Amino acid sequence: MQQHTTPPGQDAGAIVEEFLRLVMVPDPVAASRFVAPGLAIRFTGGRPMRQPAECSAFNATRYAWVKKKFESTDVVAGATHEEAVVYNTGTLYGAWPDGTPFEGNRYVDRYVLRRGLIVQMDVWNDSAEWLLVRAGLAAPWTTPGAGA
Predict the structure, then answer these.
(1) Smallest Cα–Cα separation from 112: which of 146, 145, 71, 82?
(2) Could you tell me the end-to-end alpha-carbon distance of the chain, in angstroms, rounded to an integer?
(3) Mean of the pLDDT values across residues 34-57?
(4) 54 has which bridge partners?
(5) In which order are the strands placed within the sheet that holds 83-95?
(6) What does pTM read for this prediction?
(7) Which Gene3D superfamilies would you find in this protein's record (predicted)?
(8) Other CB atoms closer than 10 Å to residue 136's CB: what's the count?
(9) Residue 84: its pLDDT value, please?
(10) Which of 92, 107, 97 is closest to 134 using CA atoms?
(11) Gyration radius (Cα) of the chain, Å
């Protein structure tokens, strides 16, 4: 795997946004330039993964296609001066395997970068709950105060 080294001063948030853009293309090979050896991924449902290609492969089973609409990318100090923690939040939009479009599916991603490379990635979103409703296994919900 080819490694990417961060130019001095490059923003950790920009690294994560470019990584996400490449994963959503999907181009997991290009996205791999932004990850460190030994990358630890914990995907939705606690699924362990090691490579961006595994994320793309999982998404291909869950969606006909999916993209992220970024709402916020926030960078905070990590455990050491060489680390940064990045939270990227927003919504997913795309189509389910049967072609039905969706949007507004909330997500939160958390990344730990060390020396400009992603060493840890955690992913949460509402897809599982939405799929339960689509399968008739859970009742649809309404926003409190939205009325019936």
Answers:
(1) 82
(2) 53
(3) 95
(4) none
(5) 47-49, 35-43, 117-125, 101-114, 83-95, 65-77
(6) 0.85
(7) 3.10.450.50
(8) 7
(9) 96
(10) 97
(11) 16
Rounded (10°) angle between helices 52-62 and 12-24: 50
**pLDDT (mean) for 86-108:** 97
Q: What is the mean pLDDT of residues 80-94?
A: 96
Six-digit token string for 76: 């905070």
Q: 62-73 burial, b if ≥16 CB within 10 A, otherwise e?
A: ebeebebebeeb
Task: Tokens 């948030």: give the residue.
Answer: 13
Separation in Å, CA 100 to CA 26, 63, 64, 65: 20, 10, 9, 10
Domains of the chain: residue spans and CATH:
12-134 (3.10.450.50)
Task: Judge contact between 105 and 93, C-beta under 8 A.
Answer: yes
Enumerate the H helices of 25-126 as residue ranges: 28-31, 52-62
Number of residues that this document lists for the chain: 148
Residue 140 has phi, psi (to 5 degrees) of: -60, 150
Q: Which residues pair with 117 in a beta bridge?
A: 114
